[in-house]
């Protein structure tokens, strides 16, 4: 009896353990997944009419050297006869991309860059091999997404979106598309990373994958093991291998839904310029973590201004959602509809404060601060603690040239080499408006802040006006 019980227990343990070993040691089969999802992935062909010059003229221009071309006058006498240029010839150029069907009545998702400049668009289905003319329902340049519609007299296979927020690094994924014109190519890989920012646009939040993605894959789906779209394949690093990027499905689904309903995308707008709150800035402001978005400026009359937001506030939460950095804030606000009243938690002068702001509509506003060197002639004073030479701004004409509403602050005349100010990227022509969120109108004001709060915290945070725009710079005070 004991032997039978032992054998039975061993058999039970083996049955329980075997599936785990099979899952850990063996790779999953993608055959059924490819069969299930493949028919909903389409090839997208576009045609664009482009103007071309006289091919013989282009040939001789190409072979002319150093601007000395004996055939140039020959062609000019015909092209400019009667002072009327001959119309340029037009020819068709084509390109290929990918997409996928999201509804049985023929709505198709792809990248904006696949169809943006096309004069003709056709969609080729896998299951019947036919091509159908496609109509653009809507496009969104900022996320590089587009929605098309084809008319087919039958129900079409389609794919559903997954929740990309729940996707984990290391999960298996499939990419299906039309790389180099090789229709319905299936490649496999894993999610390599999430939240990648590659400089493609203001709302970068890409999924990185090592599933092979190549030119022609653009607009095709990145599919999870349940056959749902986790991302839209969009970008690659040309010089790298196994590095591709996909738009997360949650972002895409929101955009596509708006394109389908309104043929455009409406995004929330606060009306501020921002920068990340780094470690030094967080310390200067008394923040526990280097999280949030530091407000550089508040546009007069915009939603943030009406809601009571101030320069120097650090935005910590929007409707209870934590804000880690500037990109996080941009994505969070843009995903909300204009007109929505949101609760905004900010850090202001050492404590949290809650604001209620009714969002406006984003319309492509963008504020970029650039350094501009100036050489004003006036009395100046040294700030040895910071490594700066500054002077007061006290003339209206000078204030106007510096982008100030009125004469105020201290103009930076010189930034000394090897000093904390040089390390903090202070530039000649900057105007110091505040120090540690206190107004500064004289050398005495600034020196007092440095000697009290600055020495206590080991740094000082300056609000600067640079070419009309606000920026913050935090300077670490070195012990003498």
UniProtKB/TrEMBL annotation:
EC number: 3.4.21.107
Domain PDZ intervals: 259-325, 390-467
Reaction catalyzed: Acts on substrates that are at least partially unfolded. The cleavage site P1 residue is normally between a pair of hydrophobic residues, such as Val-|-Val
Active-site residues, record numbering mapped to chain: 113 (charge relay system), 144 (charge relay system), 218 (charge relay system)
Protein's UniProt keywords contain Protease: yes
Binding site for substrate: 113, 144, 216-218, 234-238
GO molecular function: serine-type endopeptidase activity
Gene Ontology cellular component terms for the protein in this record: periplasmic space
UniProt xrefs under Pfam families: PDZ_2, Trypsin_2
PANTHER family xrefs: PERIPLASMIC SERINE ENDOPROTEASE DEGP-LIKE-RELATED, SERINE PROTEASE FAMILY S1C HTRA-RELATED
Stated name of the protein: Probable periplasmic serine endoprotease DegP-like
Source species: Maridesulfovibrio salexigens (strain ATCC 14822 / DSM 2638 / NCIMB 8403 / VKM B-1763) (Desulfovibrio salexigens)
Organism phylogeny: Bacteria, Pseudomonadati, Thermodesulfobacteriota, Desulfovibrionia, Desulfovibrionales
């Amino acid at each position: 009896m004991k032997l039978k019980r032992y054998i039975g227990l061993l058999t039970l343990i083996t049955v329980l353990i075997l599936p785990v070993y099979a899952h850990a040691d063996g790779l999953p089969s993608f055959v059924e997944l490819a069969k299930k999802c493949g028919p909903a992935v389409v090839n997208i062909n576009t045609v664009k009419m482009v103007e071309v010059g006289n091919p013989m003229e282009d040939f001789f221009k190409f072979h002319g050297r150093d601007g000395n071309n004996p055939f140039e006058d020959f062609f000019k006498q015909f092209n400019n006869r009667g002072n009327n240029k001959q119309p340029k010839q037009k020819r068709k150029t084509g390109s290929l991309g990918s997409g996928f069907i999201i509804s049985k009545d023929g709505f198709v998702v792809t990248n904006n860059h696949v169809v943006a400049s096309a004069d003709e668009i056709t969609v080729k289905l896998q299951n019947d091999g036919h091509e159908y003319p496609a109509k653009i329902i809507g496009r969104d340049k900022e996320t590089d997404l587009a929605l098309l519609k084809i008319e087919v007299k039958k129900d079409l296979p389609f794919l559903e979106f997954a929740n990309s927020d729940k996707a984990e690094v290391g999960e298996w994924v499939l990419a299906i598309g039309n790389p180099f014109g090789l229709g319905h190519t299936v490649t496999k890989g894993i999610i390599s990373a999430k939240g990648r920012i590659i400089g493609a646009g203001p709302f970068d939040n890409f999924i990185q994958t090592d599933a092979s993605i190549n030119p022609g894959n653009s607009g095709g789906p990145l599919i999870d093991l349940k056959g749902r779209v986790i991302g839209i394949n969009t970008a690659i690093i040309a010089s790298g291998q196994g590095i591709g990027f996909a738009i997360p499905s949650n972002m895409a689904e929101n955009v596509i839904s708006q394109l389908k309903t309104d043929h455009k995308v409406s995004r929330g707008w606060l009306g501020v310029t921002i920068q990340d709150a780094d470690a030094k800035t967080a310390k200067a402001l008394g923040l526990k973590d280097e999280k949030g978005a530091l407000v550089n400026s508040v546009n007069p009359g915009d939603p943030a201004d009406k809601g009571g937001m101030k320069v120097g506030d650090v935005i910590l939460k929007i409707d209870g959602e934590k804000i880690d950095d500037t990109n996080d804030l941009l994505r969070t606000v843009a995903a909300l509809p204009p007109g929505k009243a949101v609760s905004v938690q900010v850090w202001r002068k050492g404590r949290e404060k809650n604001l209620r702001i009714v969002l406006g509509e984003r319309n492509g506003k963008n504020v970029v601060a650039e350094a501009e060197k100036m050489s004003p002639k006036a009395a100046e004073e040294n700030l040895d603690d910071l490594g700066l030479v500054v002077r007061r701004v006290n003339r209206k004409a000078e204030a106007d040239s510096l982008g100030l509403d009125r004469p105020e602050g201290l103009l930076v005349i010189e930034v000394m080499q090897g000093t904390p100010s040089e390390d903090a990227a202070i530039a000649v022509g900057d105007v110091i408006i505040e120090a540690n969120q206190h107004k500064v109108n004289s050398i005495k004001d600034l020196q007092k802040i440095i000697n009290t709060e600055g020495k206590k915290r080991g740094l000082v945070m300056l609000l600067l006006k640079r070419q009309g725009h606000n920026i913050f710079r935090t300077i670490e005070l070195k012990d003498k």
